[in-house]
UniProtKB/TrEMBL annotation:
Protein name from the UniProt record: Gamma-glutamylcyclotransferase
Active site: E139
Top-rank lineage group of the source organism: Eukaryota
InterPro entries membership: G-Glutamylcylcotransferase (IPR017939), GGCT-like (IPR013024)
Residues annotated to bind substrate: Y60, F61, A62, F63, G64, S65, Y179
One Pfam family recorded for the sequence: AIG2_2
Recorded GO MF terms: gamma-glutamylcyclotransferase activity
């Protein structure tokens, strides 16, 4: 059983009594031990900065549904796993770009927010430059839903400069069970730290039941 806590999607609050942990708090409590276990200790690790564009490829840091290979490859067939890594000073959150908008996932979707001392674990994918456009389209860049962001991600290979995406006009909203399932499966598939995966597994959902983008990912039973 999980310890008693309450997730509030990035917001602290509540009446006196048991401590209320937010999702970002849970995701940062194990930072030092997991970092050492992945050979990323900054005091001893040689740091190498890699370009986000390497010849015909670019590096993409995924932290939401694109953690799962089968989901990412629906529109971006060239994606190849490179490594996992952590993005420091950001927290994971879920929401929508408009307060009452619906999406193909029927709930909030993942984004990152600047937050000192927090961290987000994710997967770094190498994609062919031809899929820069398709990835932007998937993230709704042309519609103003997400904006591309260049970030430095800590990995066992050193610092890697990656493209990622941050939601515009963020409104907090819990994800659907289907979206959460894809995120958790992707985290397991690519070996994100166990403690981080446990935090993902206890995210509260909106209990939506019905068709969603999950139905397009035929490899998931």
């Amino acid at each position: 059983m999980h310890p008693t806590f309450k997730l509030t999607l990035g917001l602290r609050g509540g009446n006196p009594g048991p401590v209320l942990w937010t999702l970002p708090s849970l995701l940062t409590r194990f930072a030092d031990s997991t970092l050492r276990s992945h050979n990323c200790d900054r005091a001893v690790k040689k740091r190498v900065m890699m370009s986000s564009v390497d010849g015909e490829r670019f590096m993409y840091f995924a932290f939401g549904s694109n953690l799962l290979k089968e989901r990412l490859k629906l529109e971006n067939q060239s994606a190849i796993f490179h490594t996992i890594g952590r993005l420091k000073d950001y927290k994971l959150n879920f929401g929508l770009w408009e307060k009452y908008v619906d999406s193909g996932w029927h709930g909030g979707v993942a984004t990152i927010e600047f937050c000192p001392a927090a961290e987000v674990w994710g997967v770094i994918w190498a994609l062919n430059n031809k899929h820069l456009t398709t990835l932007d389209m998937q993230e709704g860049v042309n519609l103003g839903i997400y904006s591309p962001l260049e970030v430095s991600v800590e990995t066992d290979k050193g610092l890697i400069l990656c493209r990622t995406y941050q939601m515009n006009n963020f409104h907090a909203c819990p994800p659907s069970p289907q979206y959460k399932k894809v995120v958790c499966l992707g985290a397991e598939q690519n070996g994100l730290p166990v403690e981080y995966r446990k935090c993902l597994e206890v995210i509260e959902t909106n209990n939506y039941s019905g068709p969603s983008l999950l139905d397009q990912i035929t490899t998931i039973k």
